[in-house]
Amino acid sequence: MKAIWNDTVIAESNETVVVENNHYFPAESIKKEYFKSSDTHTSCPWKGKASYYSLEVDGKQNPDAAWYYPEVSELAKGIKGRVAFWKGVSVVE
Question: Whole-model pTM above 0.85?
Answer without folding.
Answer: yes
